[in-house]
Structures are given as structure tokens and as C-alpha cells.
Amino acid sequence: VRNLCALLGPDAAEAIARSTVVTIGPITSHAARDMCVRVDAEANDHTVPGLVQAVLSQAAAPQPAEAMRR
């Protein structure tokens, strides 16, 4: 998270806010929130397959109308 924010520069949180953010676990979620990045979902199983499942679940979830306008 910190490296991605460093690459994106001072407006990183704003740029990332236009995306859905899913993390692999609580440490990554904490790091994201420390960088003012909203976390939409976190994998229950802190593995790559768990992350993939969390992404698929988040993608299948109904999205609020506001998020659809981004």
C-alpha cells in the first residue's frame, strides 16, 4: 500500500478512491487506512485464493448508486 501510494504521489488516496479496494488481511487494511485509503473488503482467508474470493464477492455485491456514478 505504501509503495503504491508513493508511486501515485500526493493525490494517491484520491486516485485510489475511484477504485474498489480489497485487501488480503488486517495488516494490509490497517496500512491502507493509515494512508487514508478506504477498504471495501478484506479477505477472510489471508491467502491469494482468499483474496481472489474476496474480490469476486465484492464484485458480485450490489453497489450503491453513488459508487456507480464514478
Major β-sheet annotation: 2 strands, parallel
Shape: globular
**Which series of helices and strands comes N to C?**
HHEHEHH
Structural class by secondary-structure content: mainly alpha
Mean pLDDT: 89
The total count of helices amounts to 5
- The Rg value, from CA coordinates, equals 12 Å
Spans with pLDDT under 50 lasting ≥5 residues?
none
DSSP summary, beta strand count: 2
Largest sheet, order of strands side by side? 1-2
Question: Approximately how much beta-strand content do the residues carry?
Answer: 5-15%
CA distance, first residue to last residue: 22 Å
- Assign a percent range to the helix content: 40-55%
Structural summary, described in words:
This protein is mainly α. The chain has five helices and two strands, in the order ααβαβαα. It has a two-stranded parallel sheet.
Summarize this, please?
This protein has helices at 2-8, 12-16, 26-34, 48-60, 65-68; strands at 22-23, 41-42.
Question: What are the salient characteristics of this protein?
Answer:
mainly alpha, two-stranded parallel ribbon, 2 strands, single chain, 70 residues
Spell out the blueprint of helices and strands:
Blueprint: H1 2-8, H2 12-16, E1 22-23, H3 26-34, E2 41-42, H4 48-60, H5 65-68
